[in-house]
Amino acid sequence: MQDLVTTWYLEMRDPAMLRPARMPAVEPLIMQARAPLPMLSRFLYTAVGGHWFWRDRLGWSYARWMAWLDRPQLQTWVLYVDGTPAGYIELELQAGDDVEIAYFGLMREFTGRGLGGHLLTRGIEQAWAMGARRVWVHTCSLDGPAALANYEARGMRQYQVEHRTIERPPTPDGPWPGWDHGAPAPGPGPA
Q1: Taking Cα atoms as reference points, which of 97, 149, 98, 99 lies closest to residue 123?
Q2: Distance between CA atoms of 35 and 69, rounded to whole angstroms?
Q3: What would you report as the CA-atom Rg of the chain, rounded to the nearest whole angstrom?
Q4: Separation between Cα atoms, residue 137 and residue 101, nearest integer Å
C-alpha cells in the first residue's frame, strides 16, 4: 500500500526552552537500562512501535542490536508504572554534541494519563545532561497521534518538514505475530 508520509524535524537549542509537562498524579519510576540487552530493546521497540508502523528495526539480528546498544553514546530510559514497563526514550549523543531522541513512546495501554509528557520532559533533561548542544527528533504521520503535539508542548520547534510516498503494509505489524488489529487495547490491569 502506498502512503504519503509527512516527517517533522524538531529541535531545542537551549535548555531554557523546555516546558515541563505537569507531574502525573503518581510519579512513575524512570530508570536507565544500563545493560545493553537486545531482547529488552527489541521488546520496547515492538511493544511501543508495533501499533504505529515502526518497522526499521524489525529485521535486526541480535548482533546488530548489540552493536547499536553497546556504545557510551546511547542511553535507554524506561518508564515503569506499578512495576510494569510502560514506555521508553532512547537518546543518542552524536557528532557535534547533538543528542537525538532516537525513539520515544508509550505502550498504547498507558496513553492518555500524562505519562508521555512526563517521560519526554525527563528525557530532554537527560539529553541536556549528556552535554547536548541541541536536542532534536523527527516524528512522522505514521507515529502516534499525540507525538508531534507533545514535542511542541515541551518547547521543541520545527525546523524542517518533508513529504514522501512510501510502501507500507495495510496494517501495523503489532507487538507480536498474529496480533489482532481490530481488538480494543486492553486496560492496564488491576490497580
Answers
A1: 99
A2: 9
A3: 16
A4: 5
Strand order across the beta sheet in which 98-106 lies = 29-32, 74-81, 84-93, 98-106, 134-140, 2-12, 157-167
Q: Provide the β-strand partners of residue 85.
A: 80
Q: pTM (2 decimals)? A: 0.90
The 3-class SS string of the chain reads CEEEEEEEEEEECCHHHCCCCCCCCCCCEEEECCCCCHHHHHHHHHHHHCCCCCCCCCCCCHHHHHHHHCCCCEEEEEEEECCEEEEEEEEEECHHHEEEEEEEEECHHHCCCCHHHHHHHHHHHHHHHCCCCEEEEEEECCCCCCHHHHHHHCCCEEEEEEEEEEECCCCCCCCCCCCCCCCCCCCCCCC
Integer Cα distance of 34 and 72 in angstroms: 10
- 140-150, pLDDT tens digit by residue? 998 888 999 99
Q: Report how far residue 95's alpha carbon sits from residue 93's, in angstroms, rounded to the nearest whole number.
A: 7
Grid cell of 20 as nine digits: 515541563
Q: Which three cell numbers stand for residue 152?
A: 511542541
Q: What residues are paired with 3 via a beta bridge?
A: 166
Here the cell at position 3 is: 502512503
Rounded mean pLDDT of 4-15?
96
- Residue predicted with more confidence, 167 or 151: 151
